[in-house]
Design goal:
The chain is of the alpha+beta class. It is 36% helix and 25% strand. It has two domains: 7-292, Bira Bifunctional Protein, Domain 2 (BirA Bifunctional Protein, domain 2), CATH 3.30.930.10; 306-399, Anticodon-binding domain (Rossmann fold).
């Protein structure tokens, strides 16, 4: 029996998603859940645009030579879904978007004027996780990464790390996470690249972290097989730690794929590559978010922000008009005109995680007013226009961003 605050229980209660045996480790998103998913995606996209990322889309399946060149075939093959195509050609469903972004940079043939070149993708990826390791939204076989890569000159690398690290604190705070820790993960035993390359990558990334003022917990051997990384760890309401954001310095893949740019003197130079994600996995972050807020999401994230409850037949038309007005100005509002008691409607709205209940009775109709009831029970009576203004201010995305 699942705990009521487990994200899988909350997913059922709030009608967000479900999992079933016929699609192990993959999510069936319900309309309300997919709306939440898109709201988070929109917030990430907003951050990408602010930071100068160009959004791209790359193929789901790539052939074996690309995965051999990237090192995934040697270091990650057991976690990849493999296919045999025409003429016995081996293919794999992508577990990451990095090689696809590298193909784009090859075609772009950048010069120093184009750097830093920032590419971002909501990459749908697949990883062949063991069945026993699957755990709700926390461990899946299919999930979406907010995947970004920065291709830059060495002298630009430190500023790119600064930019990323500076933006994360307020980004996480929007979702209700104030406590953020940072870990530095160094070279693993199984890795690509020489010790000299790793020495340089680790020293550059650690120096950048120190200069931006980060105090890092050291995690020896926990880096990616192509480079060291900074990991950003969120603390939830129970004090549990969740690794979400990451930025990784990669000197290996640019070399393996022979990436280059033309510098101011016309010479070819090798760019550095930064892998970055703010959430890591959108699905996993939603699971963390649900448990952190016990299903009571901030108003800007709630799939249903306002329920307008009519407590008499005469008030039904007024309630419909008020809900229509809220939708017109951007609030996600519905109407409850069922013949249930007000207390029942309050319970149902709370059960569905709705932040605001607007009560409409004969008195409100006569006064052209509304009674606003916050999820915590606080109530206030307001005229129509003021009620609209209050709800818009509470519910709009800009209030969070």
């Amino acid at each position: 029996m699942l705990d009521e605050h487990d994200h899988r229980s909350l997913g059922q209660r709030l009608d967000l998603f479900h999992l079933q045996e016929e699609a192990p480790g993959m999510v069936f998103w319900h309309p309300r859940g997919y709306l939440l998913y898109r709201l988070i995606e929109s917030r990430v996209r907003q951050q990408m645009q602010r930071e100068g990322y160009s959004e791209v889309r790359t193929p789901q399946i790539l052939s074996q030579p690309i995965w051999e060149r990237s090192g995934h075939w040697e270091n990650f093959r057991e976690n990849m879904f493999q296919l045999v195509g025409e003429g016995e050609r081996h293919l794999a469903v992508k577990p990451v978007s990095c090689p696809g972004h590298i193909q784009l940079v090859h075609r772009m043939a950048p010069s120093y004027r184009d750097l830093p070149l920032r590419l971002g993708e909501f990459g749908l990826v697949h990883r062949n996780e063991p069945g026993g390791a699957l755990h709700g939204l926390f461990r899946l076989r299919q999930f979406t990464q907010d995947d970004g890569h920065v291709f830059c000159a060495e002298e630009q690398m430190r500023e790119e790390v600064f930019r990323f690290c500076r933006s994360l604190q307020s980004f996480y705070a929007d979702f209700g996470f104030e406590d953020v820790e940072v870990a530095f993960s160094s070279r693993p035993a199984q890795r690509a690249g020489s010790d000299e390359v790793w020495d340089l990558a680790e020293s550059l990334l650690l120096d950048a972290a120190k200069q931006v003022g980060l105090k890092c917990l050291m995690q020896p051997g926990q880096g990616a097989f192509y480079g060291p990384k900074l990991e950003f760890v969120l603390k939830d309401r129970l004090g549990r730690a969740w690794q979400c954001g990451t930025i990784q310095l990669d000197l290996v893949l640019p070399e393996r794929f022979d990436l280059s740019y033309v510098d101011a003197s016309g010479q070819k130079r090798r760019p550095m590559m930064l892998h970055r994600a703010m959430l890591g996995s959108l699905e996993r972050f939603i699971g963390i978010l649900l448990e952190h807020h016990e299903g009571s999401l901030p108003a800007w994230l709630a799939p249903e922000q306002v329920v307008v409850a009519a407590v008499s037949e005469a008030a039904a038309s007024y309630a419909e008009r008020f809900a229509a007005k809220l939708r017109e100005v951007g609030c996600r509002a519905s109407v409850d005109v069922r013949g249930e008691s007000l207390s029942r409607k309050i319970v149902d709205a709370h059960h569905a995680g709705v932040p605001w209940l607007v009560v409409v009775g004969n008195r409100e109709v006569e006064k052209n007013a509304l009674r606003l009831r916050r999820r915590d029970g606080e109530q206030r009576d307001l005229p129509w226009d003021e009620a609209v203004a209050v709800l818009v201010a509470e519910c709009r995305p800009s209030a969070a961003a």
